[in-house]
Amino acid sequence: MKSLFCVLLMMVCMSVFANPKKSADWQRVTKLKITTLSTMLASRGIGEWGYSAVIEVDGNKILFDTGNRPQTVLQNAKDLGIDLSDVKDVILSHNHGDHTGGLVTLRKALMGKNPQALSKVHVGKGIFHKRVNSQNKILKVKSDMEALGAEFTLYESAHELFPGVWLTGNVARIHPEKNWSGNGRIETENGILEDTIPEDMSLVFDTDHGFILVSGCGHAGIVNTMEHINKHIHPGSITTAIGGYHLVSASDTHLAWTAKQLDRFGVEQMIGSHCTGIDALYSLRTLLKSNRSQMVVGSVGDEFELGKGIKAGFIAH
Ligand SMILES: [Zn+2]
Ligand SMILES: [Zn+2]
Fold first, then answer.
1. Ligand 2 midpoint to CA 50 (Å)
2. 241: which strand partners?
3. Residue 236 has pLDDT above 80, yes or no
4. How do residues 52-70 score in pLDDT, each as one tens digit?
5. Cross-strand bridge partners of residue 52
6. Rounded to the nearest whole angstrom, what is the distance from the C-alpha of residue 93 to the centroid of ligand 2?
7. pTM above 0.85, yes or no
């Protein structure tokens, strides 16, 4: 009897995993456009060590990270003819200044036109924890933003922000990707620990062409993040990876392992911006037997559009 129950349970599990499309609860986005606003390369606008992208998804506009220097994202958006005053929701992937440096400037510049502009800030649990041997600059950003009427929401687990639009929340580090410096220490409820940037979270879009992933600096690891998506959001291919993945210093062995895992998850397209590393992106392209229209180095103003794919910047095409 017990073994019959196990077989039935296995059959149910297998059918769910094999046919993720059949769940009525899973909503998918139908319109999606992602435009890079801060990264190193730029043939339009300003390049910098940092990351930001603006996302238009089914009538909502989201800003993911805010660049490094206070003016970069504001200026690049102007240069690209993109209005950010109708963006209410902003996501900070983690505390580092190269992702959070533009937030206060943007709020100040845009709230006159729209009081709701950048007023809802979504962050992962751990972002406000005290860092022992360095200043956690996000605390000043938080108090400045709150003084300007903005609100922060903290996430520990995966959360559906809009239908088919997911925040990963904190990501378990099951594979030793170790995408952080190793020098930092963080004060947690379990004492002082190595600062693994526990708050690092990504944004995921569920589409008819699989999941589209946007990452800021990839401190949680691209493979760990993909494992987390399949475990905590739902199974299915992750076809597209956009943003920073912190592979800039990865060894050839680690890149070969990463490529194998990306292949397993179904990755077909990639815009490797910021800390992904230029050489690392080209190595992954070779290892995955991909090509220059499917896997490109990110640059300011480049685009990904659902149904159309990647439009690389001139410098990276
Ligand atoms: Zn970082
Ligand atoms: Zn970064």
1. 6
2. 213, 270
3. yes
4. 999 999 999 999 999 999 9
5. 38
6. 9
7. yes
Q: Among all ligands shown, which has an atom nearest to the Cα of 184?
A: 1
CA of 39 to the centre of ligand 2 (A): 9
For the chain, percent of residues with pLDDT exceeding 70: 92
219 Cα to the center of ligand 1, angstroms: 7
For residue 85, report the distance from its CA to the centre of ligand 1, in Å.
Answer: 26
Q: Confirm if 123 and 92 have CB atoms less than 8 A apart.
A: yes
Q: Which domains does the chain have, with CATH numbers?
A: 28-310 (3.60.15.10)
Query: Ligand 1 being an ion, which residues bring their Cβ within 5 A of it?
Result: 96, 217
